[in-house]
Amino acid sequence: MSSPGCSPRGGSRVREPWPGRVPGHPTQPGHLSGTILLADDGRLPHSVPSGTTQNRRPLVTTVAPKPVVTRPWPVRAPVKGSAFARLLRTTDAKQIGIMYMVTAFAFFMIGGLMALIMRAELARPGLQFLSPEQFNQLFTMHGTIMLLFFATPIVFAFGNYLVPIQIGAPDVSFPRLNSFAYWLFLFGGTLTTAGFITPGGAADFGWFAYTPLSSVEHSPGVGANMWVVGLAISGLGTILGSVNMITTILTLRAPGMTMFRMPIFTWNMLVTSLLALLIFPLLAAALFALAADRILGAHVYDPATGGPLLWQHLFWFFGHPEVYIIALPFFGIVSEIIPVFSRKPIFGYKGLVAATVAIAALSMSVWAHHMFATGQVLLPFFSFLSFLIAVPTGMKFFNWIGTMWRGQISFESPMLFSVGFLVTFLFGGLTGVLLASPPLDFHVSDSYFVVAHFHYVLFGTIVFAVFAGIYFWFPKMFGRMLDERLARVHFWLTMVGFHTTFLVQHWLGNEGMPRRYADYQAIDGFTTLNMISTVGAFITGISTLPFLYNCWKSYRTGPVVEVEDPWGHGNSLEWATSSPPPLRNFDRMPRIRSERPAFDHKFPELATGQTLVGAPAGGAKLLTSEADGGASYQEDVAGDRDRH
Which residue pairs from 481-486 have beta carbons closer than 8 angstroms and sit at least 24 positions apart in sequence? Predict the structure, then answer.
């Protein structure tokens, strides 16, 4: 090794001193700084002050510094498997959001295939190609996948991609924790679904895992244990993701982004994450106790000590808020889309925020309406609260309709799916009000009426809003527009197929067809309605094909988005950056003065109260007040008096 001060070839090398300084000869106060000159023999002479003239020929020569040559970083040749390695190592919230979305849709396709198999079995009386045990496994895994491996992670798909951009943050607070949460979800979901390849098959005690059906005596096998452990692992990922979302929203907002300037979607993600942080630990505790019963021989849910009712209380204390965990973010998505395609600001911003908080609070107090038929709960109390939760939900409908009222509505594909969401969720909400009444609940409990209500609420909320969000933000995520014709075909197939499937199930339930049954008799009179429902289910399944083809085709050859906002009237900050956004989300950020910063940036005359033809009518004078968050107005009373 070469010693310091020596060149690698063994020759001596002199370190260059700082300009104007000679080693051992500091510049004296009052002297001019000199130029360093090197003698011909390599010795360092004294500095020569600038401006000094010498008559004799100098014995030194000036050595000019070598120019700095910048060389590009070496380009690494891509190696096989490098893309997968990047996915394993990535901590970019946008990339993780897309990974959540793709994985959730893969589970959605698996769960939908299970639904089609069950509907094909129920199309006619008699067992067609499934045994009762196989049917039980399918409806258990269908419910589990759709609720916990599609609906819940798709929330974090939109949250990871959009929340940091909407609040003006470069990334999430805990990027590595965020990545770890995704891999926990993927591992837990894979472990749960892999029960099908075990000798005894997957779990078959229902996605609600009622005890003693879920005990080792009634449901032996490794597949059931994998279900319990897989859900606990996936739930841990949800808890970590919620912590990350809450911290990001509370600590990384851009200057000017106050709480009441945040987009509605970000507000809903904050409330949803708080709700998940409260209830998912309870689910994990209940699952660990069930695993102790099954694997270690504990007696937590022993029927002799009221274990079955204990499980129902624990599960539904998680289960009912979970419905709103997977509903509130999609309320936020619709609240982002409707103003853009109505060409109006959201009506009642603070009312929407208050309704979101009220729904989250009430959702934790109505769990026992799933247990009316047990006779072990206080019916008037839980019935009243079940009716009460319809009030803030109705407030949201009022705000959405008020936003569209007298607006210049444009029915592009995101708006079509948003209107489909409103219609479908309204039907589900109305049947939910019926089920809040104990006498009616006793009549249709455990029938297909409840199945229809549940799918109207969840499918109407989640699937329609998810498709609306994807059509809305796909240009922002990938920089290409989707095919609008294929999107309309997708919408109408989904709308017709869904309502054909589940509308008739209300009548099936009212006629007495029980849910969770693999077979029925021809004399029961259920055949015609079941056949109609099955046809609708296959139409719904076929409707996903144009969507998948549209995404694949547009990702490769779709029209390139060259503007920040392809829709023209975007409100939140993601429409003020490039499409797709850069690594740190923004090259420059507009000033945030309201809850519509991107709109204010594009239309500054409208942001300050001007119209396209001049100042507001009525003699308003523009006042700028930073304390009030931007422009405000006061009536020109004196001007009005002079005019009159």
Answer: 481/554, 481/558, 481/559, 481/561, 481/566, 482/413, 482/550, 482/551, 482/554, 482/558, 483/550, 483/553, 483/554, 483/558, 484/412, 484/413, 486/546, 486/547, 486/549, 486/550, 486/553
